[in-house]
């Protein structure tokens, strides 16, 4: 038998604090999911770039990295992508879309905390 079954009523203050706590926990959990997904995405990309070696971002470029000049042949650039490369690109696109949706959800849950506070204050005044 729960307290609610016994006829016990929660006060408005307790209800409000529980709602605020729930909103904070929701925002924290969703934010944590974003961080975990972004870190696994970074690790996955570091493994796949440069043949499995960890990639270190760099702003230095050599002339060899710029590609061939117009009219020069580039053997690697002349072949169409393989089926595996196309599947990997599709998976990356799906992961990017899922991560974008998760980011939007996290932002909404954070904004919801302030919105709930604003609505509660407005109701208390009126």
Average pLDDT value? 80
Detail the poorly predicted runs. Answer: none
Compressed to H and E, one letter per element, the order equals HHH
β content, as a range? under 5%
Helix content: 55-70%
In whole angstroms, how far apart are the ends? Answer: 37 Å
Number of strands: 0
Quaternary state of the chains? single chain
Shape, please? elongated
Cα-atom radius of gyration: 26 Å
Largest sheet, in brief, is: none
Show the helix and strand layout:
Blueprint: H1 12-48, H2 75-78, H3 83-125
Helix pairs in contact: 1-3
Structure description:
The protein has 126 residues and is mostly helical. It is 67% helix and 0% strand.
Spell out the key features of this protein.
126 residues; mainly alpha; 3 helices; 0% strand
Concise account of the structure shown:
This protein is mainly alpha-helical and 126 residues long. It is built from 3 helices and no strands.
